């Protein structure tokens, strides 16, 4: 009992550090709390969140897995896990974790404001996964493009490694390092975009990037909508999936505000946009 009380006090101290942006100190307090009480799954999610801020991705993954082992229906653990998996370029695993977090969120009886944030993460994971498939498809269509992209990727990785080395040797601070990493990533993205544009112009049928606009995607199933409806709160969903949700819980899945089936109205303009998109891209859109 004494250890549990001491652990709770350490957790609160960690929370205070976290609110101030003192993430390393927060992590240290959460670690001490875990030493006092290793059976509390919330201590691991607290530490995982601090480690997210510190970009210690594998440590985040380890904490989340341990937290889930202690509490299966652990929305925050799956949410943090997805972010770390996405950061280390594991979009398939990240999408699975994000979908689990979203499922737990929308079926929770407690009022929560996390649904929209988790929904955005799911969509980000799905788009990242799709972009990986698109990159592979385009590379298969153009061997030279693939070789050039791989070369750019190697340069980016070397630049990021050099930044990490400078931080480790004390030659660069964390704030400056973060700015440099952002610059490297932006430069890489710009060069890849320019490269793909050049190849797309030369072979528009096979080299053009294919993507689905966010506004066409149902925020419940994350598939392209066919019959969208709009709620009184201004959110659009696929009619069938939203009605199925409302049978279980009479609330807007994203805002958690009260919502009834009779409040729904057809979103005619969006339906026309969805139909037009599917007709123009029927060869691949259903695989998205």
Write the layout of secondary structure elements.
Elements: H1 2-19, H2 23-36, H3 41-53, H4 57-70, H5 75-87, H6 91-106, H7 115-141, H8 143-168, H9 174-202, H10 204-207, E1 228-230, E2 236-238, H11 239-248, E3 265-266, H12 268-280
Antiparallel strand pairs: 1-2, 1-3
Helix pairs in contact: 1-2, 2-3, 3-4, 3-5, 4-5, 5-6, 5-7, 6-7, 7-8, 8-9
Q: What labels would you give this structure?
A:
TPR repeat; 3% strand; Serine Threonine Protein Phosphatase 5, Tetratricopeptide repeat; TPR-like_helical_dom_sf; three-stranded antiparallel beta sheet; 288 residues; ubiquitin protein ligase activity; 68% helix
Descriptive account of the structure:
The chain is mainly α. It folds into 3 domains: 2-126, Tetratricopeptide repeat domain (Serine Threonine Protein Phosphatase 5, Tetratricopeptide repeat, Alpha Horseshoe), CATH 1.25.40.10; 142-207; 214-287, Zinc/RING finger domain, C3HC4 (zinc finger) (Herpes Virus-1, 2-Layer Sandwich), CATH 3.30.40.10. 68% of the residues lie in helices and 3% in strands. The chain has 12 helices and 3 strands. It has helices at residues 2-19, 23-36, 41-53, 57-70, 75-87, 91-106, 115-141, 143-168, 174-202, 204-207, 239-248, 268-280, and strands spanning 228-230, 236-238, 265-266. The chain has a 3-stranded antiparallel β-sheet. The mean pLDDT is 88. InterPro entries: TPR-like_helical_dom_sf, TPR_rpt, Ubox_domain, Znf_RING/FYVE/PHD. It catalyses: S-ubiquitinyl-[E2 ubiquitin-conjugating enzyme]-L-cysteine + [acceptor protein]-L-lysine = [E2 ubiquitin-conjugating enzyme]-L-cysteine + N(6)-ubiquitinyl-[acceptor protein]-L-lysine. It holds the Pfam family TPR_11. TPR repeats lie at residues 7-40. Keywords: Isomerase, Repeat, Rotamase, TPR repeat, Transferase, Ubl conjugation pathway.
